[in-house]
Specification:
- The complex is a heterodimer.
- Chain A is mainly α.
- Chain A contains 13 helices and no strands.
- By secondary structure, chain B is mainly α.
- In chain B, 73% of the residues lie in helices and 0% in strands.
- In chain B, helix 3 packs parallel to helix 6 and helix 3 runs parallel beside helix 7.
- Chain B is elongated.
- The chains are: A mainly alpha, B mainly alpha.
- Chains A and B meet through helix 1, helix 5, helix 6, helix 10 and helix 11 of A and helix 4, helix 5, helix 9, helix 10 and helix 11 of B.
């Protein structure tokens, strides 16, 4: 088991290097020099100051040397300072927003698992029934619906017309004055719509995949054996079939992590949630390059970590994997 | 299922081709006397915050959606097919390097990458198309590679090699046409995905810029006027939904008919 984890970690290293190369390439796509904002656009800056800035940011060195120097900075988690007026270190800005995004994504994944797996199982068990057909339609529509549009519609319905749920932020204005239980409920109310919307796309995909998997597993010989032995149908389905069908689902969940992280940009912007996605959006709009690069890199690393966790969970669940 | 999908797709083509004739108003025609008017006889889908007719803007917006969808997917197919073919045909280290590259690209949340690149270059339609294409080729590469690995050992390939046909010709004239089936399915679904991505980008303001109409940027106005102009939010989204659904159904229909019965 430990060997398996070590192997996976080793595998991740070239991926990590590749991620840094791509981030580096993307940074250097920018026309003009990164210091233009502080120099060419500022008429008060002298020629020596421009040269000093260039040397400070290592821009006078050849590209591969710049890359290595940048890598060294990354290794100590120095992402530079934000271009925005507050000039705070990029890492601080990201770290303070990271917990919220991770929390919402984790909740989304839990929601996806809780809803999609039963739907998939039931669809497979009752193949071609009304339930199956209805959920198929639902899944197809779910694939096609632009989630930000759904967000707007739900906001209009639940937020504006019915006034059941708040439509922005994660806390109400009177948060500090609420007793703890109300405060918790307030937090939950704010999170309901974003989490549901974030999970929506993944729901459709996973339930369909679950259904296909279950259908395949149910056809297997050992299921027929279990039934022939006289086990109750419930035990056959939920103890034997489900366990085997569940395994690839873990991989799919792992594969959906980049989608969740990327999608968080849209939700956090629409619902004004102070997470990493909204930070990314704001930095993109204000062309705050250090911040953009920082979030891009952290996003990729999070995906990598998520895939690692998915791989390890798969190994925990399926003993056959550990032997290879 | 495929029939329903192709009907929608065809309808969309017709609408976008006939845009200059069927749109009742000029999509950029500002009429400040009629700002944020609801759906009516004069304005089927209402007007937006500058008095422009939403229906006309949506009809013209269909051109943008289709353009972006096809060009972006086209780019993805070209990259994916070439890389997949090389990886599948040559195998060993070429395969390893290319697949590692695919894995690296898959680590990035593609939306992040797209946003970052468009932030760095400006948000023109061409940049959007190229960037979406550059982030969606990975799946196609895997499909083509799988096809190549299985087709490589077939008799007609061995025969061509024996005759002395060059590698390049074998790849492009002999094997690739047979691998196109799964690529076609991926392409159809890819167009749907590209349309979704483009509308998301336009919605966030980093896609197609106003006054050029795009379904996504009409929705931006919808967000800003969410409490007073529900029609700005409903109709463009509905259009995106139906379009993407049409392409998805078409793609699934093609997949059902091509696989595995006709897979040779």
């Amino acid at each position: 088991m430990l060997r398996y984890i070590a192997k996976r970690l080793l595998f991740m290293i070239p991926l990590l290097i590749g991620i840094t190369i791509i981030c580096f390439t993307v940074i250097h796509l920018a026309p003009g020099s990164p210091t233009d904002m502080q120099t060419n656009l500022n008429p008060k800056v002298s020629l020596e100051a421009k040269e000093r800035l260039r040397t400070l940011y290592n821009l006078d060195k050849p590209l591969h040397v710049q890359y290595v120097l940048w890598l060294k900075q990354l290794a100590v988690l120095d992402f530079g300072r934000s271009f925005s007026p507050d000039q705070r270190p990029v890492l601080d800005k990201i770290v303070e927003r990271l917990p919220i995004t991770i929390a919402i994504n984790v909740l989304s994944m839990i929601l996806i698992m809780l809803v999609a797996i039963p739907i998939g199982v039931l669809s497979a068990v009752r193949q071609d029934s009304f339930f199956d057909k209805a959920t198929s339609v639902f899944v197809f529509v779910g694939f096609a619906v632009p989630t930000f549009w759904l967000a707007l519609l739900l906001m209009i319905l639940f937020g504006v017309r019915l006034d059941w749920l708040p439509i922005s932020g994660i806390r109400s204005l009177n948060y500090e004055y609420l007793p703890p239980l109300s405060a918790l409920w307030d937090l939950i109310k704010h999170l309901i719509m974003p989490v549901i919307l974030s999970a929506f796309g993944g729901l459709a995909g996973l339930s369909r995949y679950m259904r296909a998997n279950m259908l395949e597993v149910i056809r297997q010989d050992y299921i027929t054996t279990a039934r022939a032995k006289g086990l109750r149908e419930g035990v056959v389905i939920y103890k034997h079939a489900l366990r085997n069908a569940l395994l690839p689902v873990i991989t799919i969940l792992g594969l959906s992590i980049p989608g969740l992280i990327g999608g968080s940009v849209i939700f956090e912007t629409i619902f004004a949630i102070p997470g990493m996605g909204q930070l990314f959006y704001m930095s993109v709009m204000s062309r705050d390059y250090p911040l953009v690069m920082g979030v891009l890199f952290i996003g990729a690393v999070l995906t990598l970590l998520g895939n690692l966790i998915a791989d390890v969970s798969y190994a925990v669940a399926d003993p056959r994997i550990r032997v290879t | 299922m495929a029939v329903a999908g192709s009907v929608v797709v065809l309808l969309l083509f017709v609408v976008s081709l006939l845009a200059p004739w069927i749109s009742p108003y000029d999509p950029s025609a500002i009429d400040l006397r009629d700002v944020l008017a609801g759906p009516s006889g004069a304005h089927f889908f209402g007007t937006d915050q500058l008095g422009r007719d939403v229906f006309s803007r949506m009809v013209w917006g269909s051109r943008i959606s289709l353009k972006v969808g096809f060009v972006a997917t086209g780019i993805a197919i070209v990259i994916g097919a070439i890389l997949g073919a090389l990886a599948g045909y040559y195998g060993r280290w070429v395969d390893a390097v290319i697949m590692r590259f695919v894995d690296i690209m898959l680590c990035f949340p593609s939306f992040f990458l797209i946003l970052a690149v468009i932030a760095i270059l400006e948000p023109s339609i061409w940049n959007i198309m190229i960037v979406i294409g550059l982030t969606s080729w990975m799946g196609i590469t895997r499909l083509v590679r799988a096809d190549f690995i299985s087709l490589k050992e077939r008799d007609f390939v061995q025969a061509a090699k024996v005759i002395g046909v060059s590698d390049l010709r074998i790849i492009f004239s002999h094997i690739l046409p047979n691998a196109m089936a799964s690529v076609l399915v991926a392409a159809t679904l890819g167009v749907a995905g590209a349309i979704l991505t483009e509308s998301a980008l336009s919605f966030l303001g980093i896609g197609v810029q106003p006054p050029t109409p795009s379904w996504g940027n009409i929705l931006t106005a919808g967000k800003d006027n969410i409490d007073i102009a529900w029609w700005l939010s409903l109709y463009p989204g509905l259009a995106i939904l139906i379009t993407v659904l049409g392409y998805n159904l078409l793609g699934e229909g093609i997949r059902d008919s091509l696989d595995p019965r006709l897979r040779d």
